[in-house]
TrEMBL record:
Topology within the bilayer: Multi-pass membrane protein
Family matches, as InterPro entries: AA-permease/SLC12A_dom, KCL_cotranspt, SLC12_C, SLC12A_fam
Spans annotated as Disordered: 76-95
Main location, first listed in the record: membrane
Protein's name according to its UniProt entry: Solute carrier family 12 member 4
The family this protein is said to belong to: Belongs to the SLC12A transporter family. K/Cl co-transporter subfamily.
Biological processes per GO annotation: cell volume homeostasis; chemical synaptic transmission; chloride ion homeostasis; potassium ion homeostasis; potassium ion import across plasma membrane
Domain SLC12A transporter C-terminal: 697-815, 828-1070
Record field: catalytic activity: K(+)(in) + chloride(in) = K(+)(out) + chloride(out)
Source organism of the structure: Oreochromis niloticus
The entry's keywords: Cell membrane, Chloride, Glycoprotein, Ion transport, Membrane, Phosphoprotein, Potassium, Potassium transport, Symport, Transmembrane, Transmembrane helix, Transport
Gene Ontology CC, one term: synapse
Membrane-spanning residues: 104-123, 135-160, 180-205, 231-250, 256-275, 396-416, 436-462, 474-493, 543-562, 569-590, 602-628
GO terms, molecular function: potassium:chloride symporter activity
Amino acid sequence: MFQLKLAVTVKCEEELLWNQKLNYYFPFLNSSDAASKKNEFHDRNLALFEDELDIRPKVSSLLSRLVNYTNITQGAKEHEEEESAEASRRKTPKSPNMGTMMGVYLPCLQNIFGVILFLRLTWIVGMAGIVQSLLIVLMCCSCTMLTAISMSAIATNGVVPAGGAYFMISRSLGPEFGGAVGLCFYLGTTFASAMYILGAIEIFLKYLVPQAAIFHDTEPHRSDSAMLNNMRVYGSLCLSLMAVVVFVGVKYVNKLASLFLACVIISIVAIYAGAIKSVTHPPEFPICMLGNRTLVRDRFDVCAKTITKGNITVPSQLWDKFCLPGNTSSAHCDDYFNQNNVTEIQGIPGLGSGIIRDNMWGNYLEKGELLEKAGLQSVNAHGALENFGMYVSADIATSFTLLVGIFFPSATGIMAGSNRSGDLKDAQKSIPVGTILAITTTSLVYFSSVVLFGSCIEGVVLRDKFGDAVKKNLVVGTLAWPSPWVIVIGSFFSTVGAGLQSLTGAPRLLQAIAKDNIIPFLRVGQHSSDVVFGHGKTNGEPTWALLLTGLIAELGILIASLDMVAPILSMFFLMCYLFVNLACAVQTLLRTPNWRPRFKYYHWALSFLGMSMCLALMFISSWYYAIVAMGIAGMIYKYIEYQGAEKEWGDGIRGLSLSAARYALLRLEAGPPHTKNWRPQLLVLLKLDEDLHVKYPRLLTFASQLKAGKGLTIVGSVIHGNFLDSYGEMQAAEQAIKNIMETERVKGFCQVVVASKVREGIVHLIQSCGLGGMKHNTVVMGWPYGWRQSEDPRAWKTFINTVRCTTAAQLALMVPKNVSFYPSNHERFTDGNIDVWWIVHDGGMLMLLPFLLKQHKVWRKCKMRIFTVAQMDDNSIQMKKDLATFLYQLRIEAEVEVVEMHDSDISAYTYERTLMMEQRSQMLRQMRLSSAERQREVGLHSLVRMGSLYSDEEEEIVEAPPEKVQMTWTREKCEAERRNKNNAPENFRELISLKPDQSNVRRMHTAVKLNEVIVNRSHDARLVLLNMPGPPRNTDGDENYMEFLEVLTEGLERVLLVRGGGREVITIYS
């Protein structure tokens, strides 16, 4: 009855597991169809499979459900909570209807074009020059183009749900990489929202409403701190307002996306129109120069030292700035002002002016350095510090690497198409075409903009970040047609829109990561309902994720500098793109069967090139930010790995591990490991009780202390029975062993076999465990306790048979005796000794094992002592010197002692103990013989047994089916039976007069004498390691062998019996 229930349970578990797999790999299939249409399974041609059709559906039914699949919209909805069953029945999913243009191309354009184009590109051209600016654009756009190629391959290798880059990386590289890079991508998107908000506030305070500034510096040449404080206040207010908008009505943000995109396109068109118009009619934006220095134009009215009012020449406002007010004498003026002329040059010479030659090369400045025009006459003179605020100066130190980090965010946003894969008619076609076309378009715009800015605008204006030289106008706006306000208003709305969209997307990305349940700190409780960042309010908005996003974005707002925030998000985006390329390269090189992308124009070399470019750009733009970003990703990776991400997504890293394991195993096949690399690779044989609990868990504790996470550990056990009947029991045993392995922190593998005889099962484990060169070389098994008290010899016979098998297989053997007294992993020995009794050389195992144990914290403070035995003809003093030299060459610190054992006569105690041993053996033999005769009389030819490893109930005879036996009694049989009963007293007399075998007496003498010496010297040792004698060649003496081992280890608390495997395991050579 128990087996029937077990079989039904296993069958149900198999069916449930199959349905889970079916729902995972084909989420659109309804597994309930199989149950509802059970009658169709009884097809005549499928009679062989009808018992399994409920868990293995027919191909026809599978294909019919595949055809009926409709691709449900996966935009923002994918990040939200699943709707109730009633709502899902009321709503019919919309069929995807978006094409390449609306679904991929335009969203990518909107995400790529951003604040950097309008606020910083002219400044980058002015600082780096046209040539280096083109190089910056080429590097960034090439990086994103290569990433787009890799992304297209991944995105067309199946449906990409919500999460975009996170989903692609996590399903390609595993949960550890996915979680780490997913959080990096989330942080990048969050800081992008901060960057866009700072850009919008900069436009608002600098160009739209400068009067709205709250803080003002009393010293004009130190206005940075006031501006940063204004940015912090208004940025925080703007962030709060945007967060409320996103929380209340995200659908309005999505509806306004078209308006924001229109602002971007109109602004770009206005720039091109202004550049074309400048060929014939350049805009009037004169720049006032004092010598070759650029003046802040909004601080005076006329660009001249004096003006004429009527017929009188009077000082201008500029004169009053550099001289004492009301004094027309030059003696009271600034020296530089006196010695240099004031001139006015055209700020926008136009496309045909030839200014491109002056702007071709870079002109990097240090912080506070004045903007000067090369070619204008200037007399160097010391100017007054109070007049510093009249000149346009650099607010930060610039370099090529800094500009790369500032520009790169303007090349991001290429993931917008892959995030909308569920809304597309043909995602496999639209994503590659739309993304690559969008990158091509934006790259052409950036390249042409660099050339146009360098060809139309004066160099000092380009280097003027905030337009101080052109009356506080946005520099790119001075080139636009018909008015600079087109660019100012358009860029303001586009940055606000981009900030809203980033603030909308980042919480949903965090929600997608939290729902995967791979990062424990994103959840509070243990149940799915406790995943705080994966849930939100009733309409599905991720409330907690939005709150966390707002707090992180506030950190970016408090930085308050667009130029400082841009490199931060560059790091996170570059990290994300790096792993997208890595995912594509790994999948391509592994050639996994599921890697079948529809996009064919990819290659692993391109992915590696893109990955290399991402890494190079990270360190070029900011090496310290790169290290911090990689450190964050590394810590998240190790955190997820340490917590144990129980996700199997068929990722490429798992395939890479399999390929690496195969390669390593083939390498190991070349030959056995060198002695220097030898370490015990353990096969731990465990005994299970009737409830499938591990009987001696301290065996695993000892294994974990010996291995410390290194090398191979296989934990094996034997279930007695028939495989078909005991399969469920075997699975339960495996799970029980895995649980105890996790508790004892044993890193290894578990293998449970079912055998008709436990002894045969152990032999199977010894022969077949491991794979190729990764096999065990050492067997660890427990001592058969209670063998003396048991009349059944099967327990110790299984033990001795295992010893013989390990010897035949040339494996080392360790038998921890009194293993229940061994320390747990939480105990610490602060003192004490590990004593090694080196009686015979067995390959050096006795030297190596204490050294390995002392690496563990439990045994670390124990001292090592080595004892060896000297006979009468040995020179004990020389032996001690030689042993000390040998240990010195082995680099093992240990105290050496040589114990002299003098020849002595065999004591009466030894003789008596040997006699008792043999009498006991003879008595048990006769008892077993009479028991067998009684069983024959009643016809018991088989026994019902249950057992486990070296079980006390292992059968020695071959099982036969029970049958009815008839006994025919003849006169001869009756007389023979009577004679046997009359011989019982004679057998007892023979037992009394038994003389012990001399070889047994000698062995007992050795065991007794050694035990006396060992107990005398090592009675207080924490652990005693001892050579384990081999079993006798003649199996008749097996029981005596067990007695010898008992005598040898009597009176010792913890003993480890060790047998070598027939090879040297330790060497003195380097």
